[in-house]
Each structure stands twice: as structure tokens, then as C-alpha cells.
Amino acid sequence: MFRLAHISDVHLSPLPKPSFSELASKRMIGFLNWQRARRKAHSGNTLPSLIADLKDKLPDHLVITGDLVNIALDQEFKDASLFLQSLGTPSDISIICGNHDAYVPGALARAIEFWQPWMAGDDQPLGSTNDYPVMRRLEDVALISCNSAEATLPFMATGYFRQQQADKLAQLLDEADRQNLCRVVMIHHPPIKGSTLFHKRLIGTDRFQQVIRDKGAELVLHGHTHLATRHQIIGPTGAVPVVSVPAASNGYGGKRPAARYNIFEISRKAGTWTICMEEHGITDSTGKISLIAKHTLA
Ligand SMILES: [Fe+2]
Ligand SMILES: [Fe+2]
Q1: What is the pTM of this model?
Q2: What is the model's pLDDT at position 125?
Q3: Does the domain made of 2-14+23-296 have the CATH classification 3.40.50.450?
Q4: Nearest ligand by distance to the CA of 11
């Protein structure tokens, strides 16, 4: 059995003090947003206690589906690198970027420079977003990372899934299927219509879903909504679960659910994959982490 843990939307705090030149961009809006609302939601002891509880569960691998930082300052990227190092080695953790990691033009390239060891696939270094999707093999699991993060105009948080990624995703899903691997696909933005506001949606949702309908997968993981949701896309051999997890730093009592992590227990029985999902997180004002629910996904 392989135990895969999932967290998302870390929105690491505290936010380093930006320079005047760093704020002369869309970052000014994000900075004001942080001061006005996000700081309260994402600060405090929530993230450390969630991580401590997760570490106790000894998962085989951890995936983080984006929004590690807030306004993509270089200092935030450095702080997030230290955070990742505190979690384990790059072979234990795989990450993708979210819209906050690509907040302004050029930020995503900086994120790749800083976080390359946690982002690259097995076969090649990650030179740029043109290399996506990339695949890592973890025992009998093929973990396929897509990138939906791009710098957008102020007040927009859309993601993009273009044809180039669709073509390569189809190839990787075929390749992993030929090797009888359990195919887990990661993307930051939700590949489900209506699951987020219009200005936060994934442009290319139909394209992504078409690949899954044609090629199949065993699990799709995303973030961005900060919600605990389970949807599905119907693949060639049955329903493919599409799962999101609340933000890993979100405190109790706000607009969004408090922090959670999910653990997927992946095993093969009689030639088919079985995936059992456990949700762990904060359910009351004490901030204690407990088991919330268990589900059999496939
Ligand atoms: Fe987020
Ligand atoms: Fe996001």
C-alpha cells in the first residue's frame, strides 16, 4: 500500500515586508488584501500544528497543490524553500505552483528556480513551464504534475490549461497505464466548471476533462478553492475522483473551512486500484487536529 498525503494553499506567513519597487505592480493589491483579510485567516499556529500531525502519520509522499506564498516576493520563495526543507527531502515531496506563486510576470520562473528540486519530474530538470506536465514515479504510483499558474491582470486569478499540456498529459497517462501504475494528476485550479468564481476559474477545463475522459486516471488532486470537495470526471473505465482540500493554514471560524490534510491509501486488489481517503483537520476552536471522515474513492 502507498500512502499519499495532500495539502494545498499554504499561503505561508508572515508576509515579508516588500520594498517600494516590489509593490509597484499587482502586488500592491495583494499586499493590501493580505493586510485587510488574509493575514488573519492564514497566520497563527494552524499550519505548524497541521504539519506536526501530518508528520506523525508517516505518509510515503506529500503533494502540495500550489499557492505556497502570497505575492511572490523573492523572500517568500526563500522562506517557502526553508518550509519545504523542514518537511523532508525533495524525493519525499512534490509541489506545483498556484496563481499566488505566479502573482506577477516573471514570478513563476523565479519559483521554478527556487523550488526546482520539488517540482521536476524523474527524467528531466524543469527548465520552464513549457516542460509541463512532468511525471514522477513513486513505487506503483505515477504522479503527474500540470501547471495552471500564470501571471494574470489585477483582480483576476484565472488558471490556464493549454493544448500543449493536454497533448503531453495524454502521452504520460498512456505511458503510465502501459506500466500498470496508479495515475495521480495534480493541477492547482479546479478542473470542474462552476466550482469557483468566474474570475478564478480554469480556462481550459473542457480540454483537461477531455484528456481524462479519453485516457482515464485514478485520481485528480487540486487546490485553489480552499474547500473540501469531491467531484468526478467519467473516464473510459469509470469515474475518476477529483479532490480538493482546504487551505493548510486556514484558521477555524472564518469564511472557508479550517485547515485539513488528506491521506490517500492506494492499493491494488484483483488487478484494480483501490483508493481510500482520510480527511484530517481542525473542526473546532481548540485547533486540535482530528480524523474527520473516511471515504472509499475507487
Ligand atoms: Fe489559495
Ligand atoms: Fe489559488
Answers
A1: 0.96
A2: 82
A3: no
A4: 1
